[in-house]
Amino acid sequence: MRNKPTINKVQLDAIDKQLIKLLYDNARTPVTELAREIGMTAPSINERLKRLEENGAITGYRVDIEPAVLGYSLMAIVRMRQLPGKWKELEALIQAIPEFVECDKVTGEDCYIAKLYLKDISDLDPILNQVAELADTNTAIVKSSPIKRRLLL
């Protein structure tokens, strides 16, 4: 996992927030459409976008993929507590298994909490068997996600 960069707190005005919300809903929205929605000129919007990127408020633009369309019908949350002296190996293993799409290093009894996508429930044990050599695990299959990723404004 990467170390967090130093973050400087940024003050966003109402226009910045509106711009971020529009891009959050559709990162491919043309600048001309953003300008029309906000009631500003395209060059002004470009300047704001550049400033938001430079100050780190906007860190990138992304595409959301629906895992089920790619054949991944199950999602699991895996809590892991590494065995003594195995954290570096465990972290490297988690990064090497492509089905792990997110992982957080946490405080408490567990050391890592990861999100894992599976095409079939039979895919779970082979992955967990690899992890079991380095950590104790506790796995939950996700039934639904009442809150997907959402904007913090």
UniProtKB/TrEMBL annotation:
Q: Which PROSITE patterns match?
A: HTH_ASNC_1 (PS00519), HTH_ASNC_2 (PS50956)
Which regions form coiled coils?
none
Q: Which UniProt keywords apply?
A: DNA-binding, Transcription, Transcription regulation
Q: Cite the SUPFAM superfamilies for this sequence.
A: Dimeric alpha+beta barrel (SSF54909), Winged helix' DNA-binding domain (SSF46785)
Cite the InterPro entries for this sequence: ArsR-like_HTH, AsnC-type_HTH_dom, Dimeric_a/b-barrel, Tscrpt_reg_AsnC-like, Tscrpt_reg_AsnC/Lrp_C, Tscrpt_reg_HTH_AsnC-type_CS, WH-like_DNA-bd_sf, WH_DNA-bd_sf
Is ATP-binding set as a keyword in this record? no
Keyword Transcription regulation applies: yes
Q: Which residues form the HTH asnC-type domain?
A: 12-73
PANTHER family documented for this protein: ASNC-FAMILY TRANSCRIPTIONAL REGULATORY PROTEIN, LEUCINE-RESPONSIVE REGULATORY PROTEIN
This protein is called Lrp/AsnC family transcriptional regulator
Q: Which organism is it from?
A: Marinomonas sargassi
